[in-house]
Amino acid sequence: MKHIFLDTSILVAFSGSFTGGSAYILDCCERGKVKGYVSQKVVFETKKNAAKIMGEDARRAIEYIFNQGFLTIVTDCSEEELQKANQAFQNPKDAPIIASAKQIPQASLLLSLDNGFFKPEVIEYLNPIEVIKPGDFINRFREELQ
Amino acid sequence: MQVQSQQQETWIKVLSKGVITIPKEFREQLGLEEGDVAKAKIEGDKLVIQSRKVAQYSEYRTFSKEQIDEFVNEDQLPEPLATEVQKRWANKMK
């Protein structure tokens, strides 16, 4: 089974549409086809975005995801790891999330729709964890997900 | 050195090389412990010191409606997969 870290953009995309790759992957997490992780900051960021710019349906969807408990919420990264991330790439908003993914030993993939996560310096920092978009993930692992 | 203290405000003395002591009650309130890294920044004529947790959580991504629309568009699945996943979520969210 794949262990994947989900960026906030995945949860935000899910809340905006139930017909997308993010919705498909979250469903796979709930069905136990993949093991999904988020960090405390991803939860915080998702809820903040949900509260500010999303409608009632989106907020309900986000509540459902966190209430069902099928995503493992990991503690935010250590200070040491955050410093490494800040040295590798200059983005104080992304660094705590990306660094948290790096601290999950089983995680082999980070799923995001945020183009900032696909910059060469981020990819190099995360190696061997691969950054991938939901559609590409589904195409590559379709058999495992069914 | 603490000279005068109120609930959220205090006078402190700047020592050699700019060393200051953050009052104990402030450290406790902010969760600052020995060895922690705190963020210092100037805001106008004020020096602001934030605990890492507060600083980290004060900087987060707020996605605009346009950005979310971009995510959703890029995330779109082909048929019949899109309909299949939509049905699953519609059942869950009833």
Task: Kindly describe this structure.
The complex is a heterodimer of chains A (146) and B (94). By secondary structure, chain A is an alpha/beta fold. Chain A has a single domain, classed as 5'-nuclease (Rossmann fold, 3-Layer(aba) Sandwich), CATH 3.40.50. Chain A has eight helices and five strands, in the order E-H-H-E-H-H-E-H-H-E-H-E-H. The model of chain A has no long low-confidence stretch (mean pLDDT 92). Chain B has two domains: 2-58, Pemi-like Protein 1, Chain: D, CATH 2.10.260; 62-94, no CATH class. Helix content of chain B is 39%, strand content 20%. In chain B, the strands form two sheets. Chain B has a two-stranded antiparallel ribbon with strand order 1-2. The N and C termini of chain B lie far apart (61 Å). Mean pLDDT of chain B is 84; it is low at 1-6. Classes of the chains: A alpha/beta (146), B alpha+beta (94). The interface between A and B is large, with 40 and 31 residues.
Task: Name its key features.
heterodimer; A: 146 residues; alpha/beta; Rossmann fold; 8 helices; 5 strands; globular; B: 94 residues; alpha+beta; Pemi-like Protein 1, Chain: D; 2 domains; 4 helices; 39% helix; disordered N terminus
What would you say about this model in short?
Chain A is α/β, with parallel strands linked by helices and 146 residues long. Chain A contains eight helices and five strands; from the N terminus they run E-H-H-E-H-H-E-H-H-E-H-E-H. Chain B contains four helices and four strands.
